[in-house]
Amino acid sequence: MGIYVNPGNGAFEMARFSEIYVDKSMLISQMNRVYRTEKRFICVSRPRRFGKSMAANMLSAYYSCGCDSAALFSGLEIEKEPSFEKHLNRHTVIRLDIQKFLFRESHLDIFIDRMQEAVIRELRAVYETDLEPEQYGLPAVLEQIYAHTGEGFVFIIDEWDCVFRLAKEQKDVQKAYLDFLRGLFKGQEYVELAYMTGILPIKKYGEHSAINIFKEFSMLNPGRLAGYFGFTEEEVKKLCEKYGVDYGETQKWYDGYLLGGMHIYNPQAVTELTDSGRFQSYWTGTETYEALKIYIDLNFDGLKEAIIRMLSDMRCKIDPSTCQNDMTTFGNKDDVLTLLLHLGYLSFDETTGEVFIPNQEIAREFLRSVRAGGWEGLVRALNRSEELLRKTWEMDGEAVAEEMALIHDETASMLKYNSEHSLTCTVLMAYYSARIYYMNPLMELPSGKGFADVVYLPRRNVDKPALVVELKWNKSAEGAIAQIKDKQYGAWLEDYTGEILLVGIGYTKRKKHTCVIEKYVKKQV
C-alpha cells in the first residue's frame, strides 16, 4: 500500500461509517461502463463541499489492489451490480490530490517535478525494477511498465484545477501543467480509466479545451452523473425525517441547484443543519463573501443589473460558451456569471439557459457582498423594504408609492429606469423583505383571463394577506387595479382561505409612481 500508488481505503472508511452517510456507490457502475473504452476519460466539476473528494476516495478504495474493501461496500447498492466483483481491488491505482503538492505558492515552479518523482519512487518499489524516466518523466515510466507487464493504470486525480485557482495570473505555470496532463493521458494505452475532479471545468483556449479527450460533467452539463454529487431531494427528505428537521424550511434555505432535472442540495449545508438544528448560511466555511464581491464588482455592462434581477428572484439568460474556465479571463458579464455558476453561487436551468440564485443561503452571501461597499443605492433600497411591506398591509397606497419612488431612484443607476422590466425589478426589490413571510414570488401567474405580474403567497403558519401585484409602466395605478379585476386574477386564489390584497402600481413620467390597494372580495357561493 502506497501514498500515491495503490493507496489504502482509510479515507473512504471514515466517510462510510460516519453518522451521516448517503450511498453514492452506483457511481462505480458508471465508471465500470467506460473502463478501457474510448470514453474512459472523465472530468467532474462541482463547487466545494459537493462530495467530490468522497467520491474520489470511494473509487480509489474500490479499484486499488493495495487494500481489501469488500467489507466497506457490503450493503451498498453497487454490490448488486454484475460488474462489482470483476473490478473490486484488482487494479493498480495512481491517486493524486494536486492540492497536496501546492499548499504554498512557492511550489508552483516545482510541483510537477516533485509529483512525478514521488509517483516514480513508489512505482519502483511496487515493480522492483530500475525505471528510467529519461527526459519524458512519469509518462515514459508508465509506458515502460505497460510494455513489460501489460498492466495498465486507473488514475484518480482530485482538485485537478487548483493550479488555476492558485496561479490565477501565471499563464506559463498553467500551460506547463496542461502540457503535463496532455502527455500523461493523450494517446496512452496504459490508461485504463482517468477520473478527475475539481471546481472548474477544463481550461479552454479560445473555443477549445486544452485536454479535449475528457468527457466533462459540470454544473452546466451534469449528464448521467447529476445525482452522484450533492444530496438529492429524496435523500434530504429522509435525513430531515430522521433528524426531526422541517423539510419545507430546509428546502427554502438550501434547495435550488438544478442538475439534470434533479433538485440537488449542498451536502455540507444539510449535514451542518442536521448536526446543529439551525437554519443559517454555512457557505462562509466554503467560500467567503469577499471572493464573491471581487466578481460581482467587475465593470461589465449589464452585470450589476443582472445581480439585482437575481436578488429580486428573477433569472438571467447567459451564453456560457465564451467562458475560458479560469478565474481571470473575462470578456463580458456572461463569463463572470458562468464562473459564479461553477463556484456554486448560481444555479443553471438547462431548459431555458438561465442562471439564478438558488436559495436563501446563497442569497445571504450576495447580500453580504453588496453591503460591503459599492452598492449603496441597492443597500438603501433593501433597508426601505420592511417599511414598504408594512404600509402595504396597512393599505396605505400613497405611502407605498412614495417608498416605491425612493427605491426606484436608488436603483436607477443600475437599471434602465423607464421600462416595465425595470419597474418589475424595482417592485421585487422593494418587496425583498417579503421572503420572511411569503414563499418565493410567483411571476406572471396564469389566472382567469390573463397573467398577474407578481403573486405573494404567505408561508405556512404565517398570518399575512396574499398579495396580487399588477405593474403598469406609463399607466396609472387605477388602470392596474382595473386590469386585475377585468382579467379576474384573483379567481386563482378563490380557494385560499386568508385575506387577499390587490396591489396596483403604476409609473408615468408625468405622475411618477402611484399605488392603489384594495381587498379582494370573493364571490359568494
Structural notes for this entry:
By secondary structure, the protein is an alpha/beta fold. It has 4 domains: 10-228, Rossmann fold; 231-280, no CATH class; 289-371, no CATH class; 376-519, Trna Endonuclease, Chain: A, domain 1 (3-Layer(aba) Sandwich). 39% of the residues lie in helices and 16% in strands. It has helices at 10-16, 27-34, 52-63, 84-87, 111-127, 137-149, 162-166, 171-185, 233-243, 247-254, 267-276, 289-296, 303-311, 333-343, 360-371, 376-393, 397-411, 420-430, 477-486; strands at residues 41-45, 93-97, 153-158, 191-198, 204-205, 208-209, 215-217, 231-232, 257-259, 262-265, 316-317, 347-349, 354-356, 442-447, 450-456, 466-473, 500-508, 512-519. Mean pLDDT is 87; it is low at 446-452.
Quick structural gist:
The chain has 525 residues and is α/β, with parallel strands linked by helices. Helices cover 39% and strands 16% of the residues. It has helices at residues 10-16, 27-34, 52-63, 84-87, 111-127, 137-149, 162-166, 171-185, 233-243, 247-254, 267-276, 289-296, 303-311, 333-343, 360-371, 376-393, 397-411, 420-430, 477-486, and strands spanning 41-45, 93-97, 153-158, 191-198, 204-205, 208-209, 215-217, 231-232, 257-259, 262-265, 316-317, 347-349, 354-356, 442-447, 450-456, 466-473, 500-508, 512-519.
